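Reviewer 2 asked us to include a model.

Predict the structure of this chain.
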Amino acid sequence: MIPTEEQAKALWDKYQLPERKRNHVALVAKVALSLAEKRTVNKNLLLAGALLHDIDKNIPRLPGERHPDTAVRILREEGMEEVAELVKTHSLHAILDPAICPKTLEEKLLYLADKMVKDEVIGVDARFALWNDEHLPPDVQKILDDSYPKVKELEKEIEVAKLA
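Predicted model (structure tokens):
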């Protein structure tokens, strides 16, 4: 099942998605749909995935889960397998893992839109700069450093440099 916008937003309440994250996912959805203009994509799936990609931010993780594993589990429990599959590919580390890296256009658009948005649309370079300013643990910094060139390649593939 692919939820409507209203159904997706009802899940925000059910899973107590914090207000700041609601604003983030709504903006990611707007950017993703903007990137999807004039492209053949499943816009309903893209919208649902964007609105629900961080649904796990206020939910305890099970042992071994990391973001977005908990979101994927929740979406599957809600009967939203297609959305779960899309959400599975959006986290920063996904682009480094051939098993879960974004492959479909919907996956690529969601991944990239998420990397262009913090609390406002800031673009990939500014988003990575913010992460770099966080003084992350070495293992997380390595993921960030290894991801950046791949995200820039994706940005070029989708031709969005001028949008941010």
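The helical segments are 5-14, 19-36, 43-52, 69-77, 81-87, 105-116, 123-132, 138-158. The first helix runs from residue 5 to 14. We have added this to the supplementary material.
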